[in-house]
Protein 1
Amino acid sequence: VQLQASGGGLVQAGGSLRLSCAFSGSIFSIVTMAWHRQAPGNQRELVGIITSVGSTNYADSVKGRFTISREIAKRTLYLQMNSLKPEDTGVYYCNARRGDGLMFWGQGTQVTVSS
């Protein structure tokens, strides 16, 4: 599975961005897809996750502000980010996990939120 993230940029606090992650290859055995982020000096953390049946879950810090979704026909995973805060700044990565636990990662896309 290959993943290609895009959509990052510079935005003012309170603004919105939508990240996209185009995926290709065999996705038959993919059980979850997710967005993670990593701020400078911090560990990579899970932001939101969506299962093969469409169930979603989010980090407490983004609940009510971020929405993860996917369009299988377009082979694209999304992360809609609203009411952005400076602490949302970081490199955002999309990820897919197979049923056997193997993980696939896209390259990151930088999100910078100015105060």
Protein 2
Amino acid sequence: QVQLVESGGGLVQGGGSLRLSCVASGRISSINDMGWYRQAPGAQRDLVAVISNGGNINYADAVKGRFTISRDNAKNTVYLQMNNLKPADTAVYYCRGFVASGGWTQWYWGQGTQVTVSS
């Protein structure tokens, strides 16, 4: 069984920073892409940033220059450093990983962590 657990969310004033972490655990052979998604109330879940196990990175236009995704492959962990936060960044942030486990490779989601940015 593979689990992804996020942490680091919270309430912050506009212009502030937060760092999210997501740890994958279980019978893991390898992890390919890892990414962060977010979902605001009444909206769809959108990609924020994704990083391959080789370090290739893509960001949503809305966060370019403010957010930085990174990973520690030895710890099966992905991070999202969020700077200059805006009220529009308020959402539940989800971690997603393409994980090889027990002969299968599939996408796994974390349970989400709430980020609230006040104006």
Protein 3
Amino acid sequence: QVQLVESGGGSVQAGGSLRLSCAASVSIFSIPLMGWYRQAPGNQRELVATITTRGNTNYADSVKGRFTVSRDNARATVYLQMNSLKPEDTADYYCNVQMASGRNHWGKGTLVTVAS
């Protein structure tokens, strides 16, 4: 069973920055896809950013140029650097890994609140 623990959420003013971390309980060297999703109250969960084993990244249009996803395989950790935060970025942020089998695992989430 893969366990994912997110950290780094909190409250910031608009224009501020936060860095989220997601530590996995297993080696991530061979995990094909890791990433972040978010869910705001009343909304569906949506993709924020993903990163492959080769470092190829994909971002939601709403965060391009502001957010950066990265992974440290040696530390079994994936990060999300969030800059120029906006009130509409307020949400619970969830770490996700997609195994080679296709099975998905989720963290419990970390709350990001951006005040205007």
Protein 4
Amino acid sequence: QVQLVESGGGLVQAGGSLRLSCAASGIYFSNYDMGWYRQAPGKQRELVAHISHMDSTNYADSVNGRFTISRSNAKNTVYLQMNSLKPEDTAVYYCHGVLWYSRSSEYWGQGTQVTVSS
């Protein structure tokens, strides 16, 4: 059974930091491209950050320079370090994984709430 389990969300003041973690099980993690998405109330889900199976990264313009995505294949975990948080970063954050050579094999976590107060 495949599971992606996020943790690390919470309530933080503007300017603060949080680190999200996503622990994967049931997959050969190193073969997966991983990403963090977020969805704010009334808005569409959007890509925040992506890290490939080869460790290349890319970021949404809105978080570039503030957020850092990383992965540990030894721990089957992907991380999102979020610094200089803004109220507009408030959303449910979802972990996503897709097999790099077969885009039809993809999985989502259940989401973790991040709330940034002004």
